[in-house]
Design a protein that fits this description.
Blueprint: H1 8-18, E1 25-30, H2 34-46, E2 51-56, H3 58-63, H4 70-77, E3 81-83, H5 92-103, H6 117-129, H7 139-147, H8 151-156, H9 163-176
Helix pairs in contact: 6-7, 6-9
Length: 177
C-alpha cells in the first residue's frame, strides 16, 4: 500500500519503479476500499511515473452504496482513472483504450502534495541540492525520501557520496522534528 519498502517484495517493486524501465504503471485499486489505496497512488504520481488507475470492484462499491466521482478523482490524481469490474469484464474495453492512449504519449500532468510551509521549504532546499544524476521529474520525491532517511533511495541515487547534501538533510531533519 506504499513505497516504503519494509519487505523484500516491496523493495523489488520500488527498485523497479525507480529504474525508470516502465513506460506506464497500471495501478489496480479496490473501489470498495479506496482510501486504503490512495496513498500508494499518490506516491507513484509524485515519483513522476505515468499511471493509469483501474478502479476495480465497482460492483462491490455500488452494492455498499459507495459512489465515486471518477472524473473528480482523475483530476485530483492528475492521471486517468477508469472504473472496471475485472471479474465480469465491465469497463475493460475503455480501460484498454485508455492504456493505449497513454502509451501513445498523452501529456503527463504533475501532481504535488503540499506540506506545511517549513517542510515544503526543506523539500525545495534538498531538491535544489540534489546531484544532476537525479532526474528532474523525480527530484521532489527523492528529496522527500531523503528527509525520511530512506537509505535505499540514497543508495540508488548515490546520495551517500554527497557529504554536504547529507549534512544539510540532517540539519533540516532536526529542525522539522
Amino acid at each position: 500500500y506504499s513505497l516504503d519498502a519494509s519487505s523484500l517484495d516491496e523493495e523489488v517493486t520500488r527498485d523497479f519503479l525507480l529504474s525508470q524501465a516502465a513506460d506506464l504503471i497500471v495501478n489496480v485499486v479496490d473501489a470498495s476500499n479506496l482510501e486504503r489505496n490512495l496513498y500508494f497512488t499518490v506516491q507513484l504520481r509524485e515519483m513522476g511515473i505515468p499511471v493509469v488507475v483501474a478502479l476495480n470492484m465497482m460492483d462491490v462499491a455500488r452494492k455498499r452504496g459507495i459512489s465515486i466521482d471518477v472524473e473528480s478523482l482523475s483530476e485530483s490524481l492528475c492521471c486517468p482513472v477508469v472504473p472496471i469490474v475485472a471479474v465480469s469484464g465491465e469497463g475493460m474495453a475503455a480501460f484498454a483504450a485508455t492504456i493505449r492512449g497513454e502509451l501513445r504519449g498523452s501529456k503527463l500532468r504533475d501532481i504535488e502534495v503540499v506540506h506545511e510551509d517549513f517542510v515544503e521549504q526543506a523539500i525545495v532546499s534538498v531538491s535544489e541540492s540534489l546531484p544532476e544524476t537525479v532526474p528532474a521529474h523525480q527530484k521532489r520525491w527523492v528529496a522527500i525520501k531523503s528527509l525520511e532517511n530512506d537509505e535505499r533511495v540514497a543508495k540508488i541515487f548515490q546520495l551517500d557520496g554527497q557529504p554536504g547534501l547529507l549534512q544539510g538533510v540532517a540539519e533540516l531533519q532536526s529542525q522539522i522534528h
